Fold each of these.
Amino acid sequence: MTEPISPKEARGSLSAAPGLRPADDRTNNHFPMPSEASGEDDVLVGCICTDIGDPSVRTLAIFVAGDQLRKGAALNAVQIAMRLPDDVGRKP
């Protein structure tokens, strides 16, 4: 990022993005887990915090969990196909 972003701002942007879902409860020390993402179309995000390894404060650390068969392969193929115009691939 060229400008610093707060974890709160990032969470708001990520929460509004299609296919992403906040899935953490820092008060109870709960973060996105692969077992929770299994069978889900959405990618789970959480534990959004400033990366303490970057003194410029321009990077964030984020926990991400997703079902690799659904989002990693099959679902993406379906979503891409659905966005293609109706005439793509048809012979004239």
Note: The first helix runs from residue 7 to 16.
Amino acid sequence: MIEELFEKACKYTNYKESNYWIYSVENKVLKRDDKIKKYLIVRFYNRYFNENNDLKELYLDVKGRKELVTEFTLTKKYNDKNIMGLAIEISLEDVIKDVSIVGYKNNDYKIIFSNQTPIEHIAIEENYQKLNVLKSAFSKKTVNMIPAFGKDWFCSCGCYNYEDSMYCEQCGTSKKELSEMINYNSLNLISKLQSKIKFSHNETFQETINKYISAIKYKYGIDENLILENLDIETLIEKYYKENSHN
């Protein structure tokens, strides 16, 4: 679904600075109250998929005219709170395709984009294996490349980053970490990172292991049960007693 929406969004004027990207613009004639009316239907989505009904206002540039919209509906096709639509009544003779989001207001803040970096010229590559990282940080199949669009790149959290960005603008993951993440499948990475566990006399064995599992889950998106099942517990217990015997 993510790559489908992104591919559609590339056809419209969307900006890297925005949390919301348009993926469909439609002009539709409907009969309302026995009158023929025409509406501009705009469908858009929260590209970080972290919507919590906090979008209050959306500021649009409609063919050079500024529009403020405060009412949004869920899109039936997806039935996902991150994917929404809006309608603006227009004159019957209007044909409008040139629409862009230039700002928005949510529960926490209002933002109007002073810098506008369009993404509409980014082309989706045919190699969809690269997009596996967008669906899940890991899979059983090894992925050998950071998912890229031209020279720019996608992080496992779904954020689009430009070529010169060494760290993901949304989650802070570095390119180096992402390369490490996608060049090892889940089991290999768990084994590799297990050697980095350090025990302290200030924590119990279980506390350290739980902290490790939480950190790996948060950073790499691996299921907690999968991490636990593939830890070499016996070796770690030996390491725990050995390191604590010197304290």
Note: The longest strand covers residues 20-32.
Amino acid sequence: MKSIFPEVITKLPEAGLGIEGLRIFISHSDTHEVWFLETDVLLDYPPHAHVAQWSTVVNGNIEVTMNGERKLLHKGDQYYLPEGVEHSVKMSAGYAEV
């Protein structure tokens, strides 16, 4: 898969989530992580929760469902997921976010 991200990003360590078609490059510090996520396939990720997340859509679109509300986000849009809040996502093929 050819990355939308430049080489300085694709040389970062990858998260090994084991999801075919999904790549996540991670910049890590003692206080936070920055994830550079991209997929070349349609991904429909089931409900889950994790630490707080703030993301900006870099390419494609994502459908985020949280608290029964569904939002379709496009390139340039931002979204925030509070810590521990269950949500699901559907990412288009070619989707990327930071």
Note: The CA atoms of residues 39 and 87 lie 19 Å apart.
Amino acid sequence: MALTKAELHEYGLTLFGERYQSRFAAALTAVRGKPVSQTQVSQWVAGPDGQRDPPLWLLPLVLHVARRERADLEQRMRHLDWLIRRDDRRARRLLAAADRHPEVRPLLDDAPEAEDDGPDLTP
């Protein structure tokens, strides 16, 4: 069963944001090994059902792109978690030092409360 126009749009929007069509076309081209143009993607998601619907061969490619993008996001999320933990410790040290340096206190009072994110996973 082929993707519907709505499903293809949902994948594109979720993977690449509001203006997804050119980035989605480039990702599909990379996976397919043959050009997929932004115009094709636009035609597949526009218009009434039954008119230039997404082709049957598209679903496996879309799933491949989605899995690859998810893996990339997970890797970036792990790195962002590490950065937050690292700088949270730095912020706590600044708060402790603020007692000795009153000029720093107004800057730190607006900072959100630090969270304990579990064990330190610093590489």
Note: The two ends are 45 Å apart (CA to CA).
